[in-house]
Amino acid sequence: EVQVVESGGGLVQPGGSLRLSCRASGFTFANSVITWARQAQGNGLKWVSTINSNSNTDYTDSVKGRFTISRDNAKNTVYLQMNSLKPEDSAVYYCIIGPRVAIVTMAPRGQGTQVTVST
């Protein structure tokens, strides 16, 4: 059974940092593409970043230079380091097993972790 658990969300002031973690199991993690997506209140799920098995990365334009995705295959974990956070980054962040297009499929994902950027 595939299991995905996100953690690391919280309340942070504008300009602050958070590191999200996505721990997964039940499949060959090292061979997998992993995607982070987010859903702000009242909006749909939107792509944030993707990392493939070679640790090649991609980011949506609004987070380039501020967010960094990485993976530790020994720990079956993908991270999303978020710096210089803005109020518009507030959302529930989901870790999805698959490439960017997996966002609109039934690909495995966790319950999400809430990120709130506010004074």
Q: Using only CA atoms, what is the Rg?
A: 13 Å
What overall form do the CA principal axes indicate? globular
| Beta strands, count | 10
What level of helicity do the residues show?
under 10%
Distance between the termini: 40 Å
Structural class by secondary-structure content: mainly beta
Strand content: over 45%
- The succession of helices and strands, N to C, reads EEEEEEEEEE
Largest sheet: 6 strands, mixed
On the 0 to 100 scale, the average pLDDT is 96
Explain what this protein looks like in three dimensions.
The chain has no helices and ten strands. The protein has strands at about 5, 10, 20-25, 35-40, 45-50, 55-60, 65-70, 75-80, 90-95, 115. It has a six-stranded mixed sheet with strand order 2-10-9-4-5-6, with no helix packed on it. It is globular, with a radius of gyration of 13 Å. The N and C termini lie far apart (about 40 Å). The relative contact order is 0.31. The model has no long low-confidence stretch (mean pLDDT about 95).
Condensed summary:
The chain is mostly beta strands and about 120 residues long. The chain is about 0% helix and about 45% strand.
Salient structural properties:
6-stranded mixed sheet; 0% helix; 119 residues; mainly beta; 4-stranded antiparallel sheet; 47% strand
Element layout with pairings:
Blueprint: E1 3-7, E2 10-12, E3 18-25, E4 34-39, E5 45-51, E6 57-59, E7 67-72, E8 77-82, E9 91-97, E10 113-117
Parallel strand pairs: 2-10
Antiparallel strand pairs: 1-3, 3-8, 4-5, 4-9, 5-6, 7-8, 9-10
